[in-house]
Amino acid sequence: MNDKPLWEDIVEFARKKKWLAAALIIIGLFGLIVPVIPGLLLIGVAVFLLKPEWWDRLKKKVGM
After folding, report:
1. DSSP state, 10?
2. Running DSSP on this structure, what letter comes out for residue 5?
3. pTM above the 0.85 mark?
4. Is residue 47 in some structural domain?
5. Domain-embedded: residue 1
6. How far apart are the C-alpha atoms of 17 and 46, rounded to whole Å?
7. Residue 52 forms part of a structural domain
C-alpha cells in the first residue's frame, strides 16, 4: 500500500487536474478550427475541472 499521507495524494491529484485542464483547453482551441474535434465541449470540461463550483451552479439551474 502507499506510505504517503493522504494530503500528498490530494496535492498530486490537484496538479494533475490542472495539467489535464490545460491540455483540454489546448485541444479544444484546436477543435474550434478542425470540425472533427468537439472544441467547445472540451473547453467546457476543462472549465469545470478548474472551477467545480460552476458545475454545482449549473446542476441547480437545470434541476439535477
Report:
1. H
2. -
3. no
4. yes
5. no
6. 9
7. yes
For the chain, what is the domain count? 1
For cell 490542472, the residue is: 18
44 domain-assigned: yes
Domain with 23, as residue range(s), is 18-62
Q: Cα(first)–Cα(last) distance of the chain, in Å?
A: 37
What's the pLDDT tens digit per position in 35-51?
Answer: 777 888 888 888 888 88
Determine the pLDDT at residue 1: 56
Answer whether 27's CB lies under 8 Å from 33's CB. Answer: no
How far apart CA 52 and CA 55 sit, in angstroms, is 5
Gap between the Cα atoms of 61 and 54, Å rounded: 11
37 to each of 3, 31, 32, 34, 45, how far by Cα in Å? 41, 5, 8, 6, 14
